[in-house]
Each structure stands twice: as structure tokens, then as C-alpha cells.
């Protein structure tokens, strides 16, 4: 276990904004988690941080930041049709996806290119191109902070929803996730429900394989999203809003080409990026912050921005869309600190 006092977190978040924390604790083995809890180290303000790819530090964090840096991908069950993998929380998501592609384990290839660590994936229920991680998670393990007791939740108990889970709602701030278990298919099958992905595959002329699907997904992502090693961002900043169908129909009269999808009985999901674009904000820049020109869902730090500057720009985008269309966008990115 590493303990770093008064640690600068700029290199620990993909927005690349500076922020100090009182203490950064890096856990290197699962056995250290109950040890940390027994020391009452998390009795005060605390924050669980993975790869920092879904986090905006608005200000310094006066408390303890915990990173679970454990490693390891373990096969726990396998037969001719499927495999179950138990994956440590600190494994980079890209490493897990690459492992599955190399071994022809089907189910994660649409999620290639997503930054972050495995321990964070169930919190947000990450998803892209027609796939959500809840589709392949069987179990999430870890510790409750207040009770200091271990937990093991099956998929249904995680209460997965669109970009949410029990770890982001009822259990928010009270869990350290140590492992995530996945069930993946060894039989070839693909999710090509996303129109843009199908079109790209057809245009490529490649046969449909796990490698080609992953390559096309990465091509589409790279075309739309900035390289987080060069431009500070956290991927999609906004959730796609889910509204009543009657409200969607009202907007259709205002926007005949409105993009929408069914989202359960009487509900429809809109494309937040389209609303931001139609509000005239795509590519707009204020100082060090802006809306990415290739994808309106993405807010970027062009260099030198403070977290508060990014946050203020987010509020500006949200208010502009609300005034124009009457839709209040929600942030997908977690915001930490005080403005």
C-alpha cells in the first residue's frame, strides 16, 4: 500500500486539471482493503478513483483518495460455449478488452477504446455502440466502507440502468470494488444494432470478425473523440436525455429531423449531441475550454484549464440547451469539489 500526502492529481485525471488531495492511498493487493478500513482511514471525506477518465475535479479535494491498483485476469469457469473471467479492479479496461479479442471471447469488442479501469466499469454501467457492460457482468465484489464487510452482488442486485447502478445511487461513497466477474461467449456472435457501426463495416469490405468489429469501433471512436493523451477530456460529458414520448413529439414539431430511440413504455431517448449541435455550441470555445468540434457530447480542456472553468462551461452548455429546447441535460461525468 502506498500513501502519498498532499498529492497533486493532475496526472490522475484525463481532464488534466490540477487538484490537490490531502492523501492518496494506492492499494496494490486485495488483502490491503480490509487493512485500510480497519485503520479508520476513510471515516472522513473520501473518494474512490480509478483511471480518472470519468471525473472532473472542480477544486482541491480535502480528504483521502483511494485507488485500487490490483492486477490480474483469472478464468474461473470455462466450457466449449462460454468463459467466466474474474478481473481485478485495477486492470485497465483496454487490457481486458484486448485479452478478450485475442482469445476470441465475444461480448466486449464494441467497448474497445473506452478509457478507465475495470473497477469503475459497473459503477457507470459503461456502454457504447449498442452494448452496455451490464450485458456481460455476472458479479461485482468488494467491501462496504461503513460496515467494513465484504459484499458480492449478482447482476440483478447491482440495479444497472442507463449509465448508473447501485454503486452510483444507494451505495455511493460506501464501496470499494475489488473484482468484477464477466461471462463471455466463445461462440461467434456480434451486436451490430448501431447503424453507424454497420455502415462502417460494410464500407470497409472486411469480413465480420471480432478483430474487424473492434477495429471499426476504434476507427469510429478515433474519428469522433479526442486523444486523451493530448487533449484533456472525459469522453462523453452528457447523458442522452430520456423523456416522455409526448415531450419527444413536441420537439419533433420544432426539430423534424430529431434523433430519438425507444426507451421503455411511454419514454424516448434523445441524442444529447444533436441538441448541443442544434443549439449552436458544437466547436464553440471559451478560453481554455470548449465543445469538441467532432463530437458535441465532449467537453475538452485545450490546455491550462482549471476544473472550475470546465464546470462553468458545462453549466453554460446545459443552460443554453434548456433555453432553446426545454430539455435539461444531465452530466455523465462525476464532479468533485466545490465551486
Question: How would you sum up this structure, described in words?
Answer:
- The chain has helices spanning 32-38, 93-102, 121-124, 195-204, 210-224, 245-254, 272-278, 307-325; strands at residues 2-8, 20-27, 46-48, 55-57, 61-68, 73-78, 82-88, 127-128, 131-132, 137-144, 150-154, 175-185, 232-236, 242-244, 260-262, 267-270, 285-286, 289-291, 298-301, 334-336.
- It has three domains: 2-68, Uridine Diphospho-n-acetylenolpyruvylglucosamine Reductase, domain 2 (2-Layer Sandwich), CATH 3.30.43.10; 73-185, Uridine Diphospho-n-acetylenolpyruvylglucosamine Reductase, domain 3, CATH 3.30.465.10; 232-336, UDP-N-acetylenolpyruvoylglucosamine reductase, C-terminal domain (Uridine Diphospho-n-acetylenolpyruvylglucosamine Reductase, domain 1).
- The protein is α+β, with helices and mostly antiparallel strands and 339 residues long.
- The strands form six sheets. A five-stranded antiparallel sheet has the order 6-7-12-10-11, with no helix packed on it. A four-stranded mixed sheet has the order 1-2-5-3, with no helix packed on it.
- 24% of the residues lie in helices and 29% in strands.
- It has eight helices and 20 strands.
State which percent range the strand residues make up: 25-35%
Q: Determine the fraction of residues in helical runs and give it as a percent range.
A: 10-25%
Choose one word for the global shape. globular
**What would the average pLDDT be, to the nearest integer?**
96
Uncertain runs: none
CATH topology of the largest domain: Uridine Diphospho-n-acetylenolpyruvylglucosamine Reductase, domain 3
What is the CATH class designation of the largest domain? Alpha Beta
Output the strand order for the largest sheet.
6-7-12-10-11
SSE-based structural type: alpha+beta
The name of the CATH architecture of the largest domain is: 2-Layer Sandwich
Q: Please count the beta strands (DSSP E, at least 2 residues each).
A: 20
**Count of DSSP helices?**
8
Compute the CA-based radius of gyration: 20 Å
Distance between the termini: 32 Å
Number of domains: 3
Give helix and strand order, one letter per element, not per position: EEHEEEEEHHEEEEEHHEEHEEHEEEHE
Amino acid at each position: 500500500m502506498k500513501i502519498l500526502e498532499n498529492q497533486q492529481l493532475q496526472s490522475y485525471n484525463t481532464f488534466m486539471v490540477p487538484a490537490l488531495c490531502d492523501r492518496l492511498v494506492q492499494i496494490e493487493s486485495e488483502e490491503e482493503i480490509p487493512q485500510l478500513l480497519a485503520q479508520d482511514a476513510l471515516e472522513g471525506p473520501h473518494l474512490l478513483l480509478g483511471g480518472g477518465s470519468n471525473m472532473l475535479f472542480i477544486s482541491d479535494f480535502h480528504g483521502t483518495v483511494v485507488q485500487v491498483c490490483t492486477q490480474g485476469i483469472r478464468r474461473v469457469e470455462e466450457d466449449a460455449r462460454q468463459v467466466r473471467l474474474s478481473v481485478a479492479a485495477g486492470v485497465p479496461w483496454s487490457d481486458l478488452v484486448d485479452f478478450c479479442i485475442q482469445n476470441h471471447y465475444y461480448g466486449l469488442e464494441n467497448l474497445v477504446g473506452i478509457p478507465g479501469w475495470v473497477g469503475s466499469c459497473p459503477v457507470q454501467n459503461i456502454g457504447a455502440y449498442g452494448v452496455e457492460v451490464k450485458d456481460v457482468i455476472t458479479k461485482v465484489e468488494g467491501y462496504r466502507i461503513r460496515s467494513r464487510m465484504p459484499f458480492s452482488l449478482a447482476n440483478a442486485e447491482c440495479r444497472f440502468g442507463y449509465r448508473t447502478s447501485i454503486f452510483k445511487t444507494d451505495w455511493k461513497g460506501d464501496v470499494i470494488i475489488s473484482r468484477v466477474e464477466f461471462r463471455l461467449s466463445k461462440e461467434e456472435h456480434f451486436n451490430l444494432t448501431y447503424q453507424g457501426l454497420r455502415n462502417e463495416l460494410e464500407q470497409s469490405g472486411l469480413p465480420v470478425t471480432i478483430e474487424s468489429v473492434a477495429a471499426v469501433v476504434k476507427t469510429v471512436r478515433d474519428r469522433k473523440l479526442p486523444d486523451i493523451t493530448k487533449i484533456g477530456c472525459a469522453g462523453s460529458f452528457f447523458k442522452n436525455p430520456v423523456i416522455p414520448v409526448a415531450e419527444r413529439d413536441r420537439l419533433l414539431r420544432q426539430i423534424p429531423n430529431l434523433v430519438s430511440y425507444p426507451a421503455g413504455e411511454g419514454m424516448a431517448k434523445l441524442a444529447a449531441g444533436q441538441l448541443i449541435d442544434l443549439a449552436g455550441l458544437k466547436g464553440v470555445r471559451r478560453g481554455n475550454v470548449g465543445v469538441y468540434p467532432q463530437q458535441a457530447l465532449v467537453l475538452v480542456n485545450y490546455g491550462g484549464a482549471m476544473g472550475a472553468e470546465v464546470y462553468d462551461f458545462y453549466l453554460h452548455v446545459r443552460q443554453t440547451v434548456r433555453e432553446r429546447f426545454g430539455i435539461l441535460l444531465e452530466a455523465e461525468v462525476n464532479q468533485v469539489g466545490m465551486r
